[in-house]
Each structure stands twice: as structure tokens, then as C-alpha cells.
Amino acid sequence: MELQIDVFTVMTWILFLGLYPMAYFWLRRAYRIFIKKDYSDVALKRGEPPKNPAKWAPYVGGLNLIAGLAAAWAILGVVVFAYPYEVWTEIAGLTIWFKIIGDFIIKTQAHPIVPKKKRAA
Fold this sequence. Notes:
transmembrane; DUF3784 domain-containing protein; membrane; transmembrane helix; mainly alpha; elongated; single chain
């Protein structure tokens, strides 16, 4: 049997191997927020934290915890439970999109757009 390397196979391996660092960083951020009470990475917008990062810490920590556990579940599904390709890629894809959209929502709520006051003419 000959190994065929094509774009589909390469992209599948990139997705699978990319789950490891994603799960690690997301679970580490949840650990830093919930256990160490380090709010330096909470709801950053252009590198700036919100005015009250402790208010947004449970939301960001929960999002990171759920996303990290889902990514770890997808990894275990491939390695231990032999999930079919469609199943583990759905879990991985939905997790990545969930994390991106969730971070965006939390960030925009933590940094509201404040209208500027008009200057006196």
C-alpha cells in the first residue's frame, strides 16, 4: 500500500496537529484565570484590558475552559476512540469558530463604543 500525500491529507494533519497547541493554550488560560487569578489576558482589545477585567474573567475563563476541553475531546476522539473523520473535524471546526466568535463578543462587550462629546464651537 502506497501512502498518498495530497492537499486533503496535509490539511487534515495540520488541523489535527494544530489541536494540541490550541487545547494547551486555552486550558492554560483558563487555569491562569480561575486558579492563579491572573486577569492580564482577559478581553484584550488592541492589547489593552478592559476597565474592570475581574468582571469579565469568569466569561473568558469559561470560554477558554469549554474550548480547551472540546479540543482535548477531539484529540482523544481521534487517538483513543477512533472517531470517524467527519465527527472529529466537526468538533474541531465548531470549537475553533465558537472560540473566535465568543472572544469577539466578550471583547466588544467589555470595551463598549463610547460616543465622543461634541466640541463647543
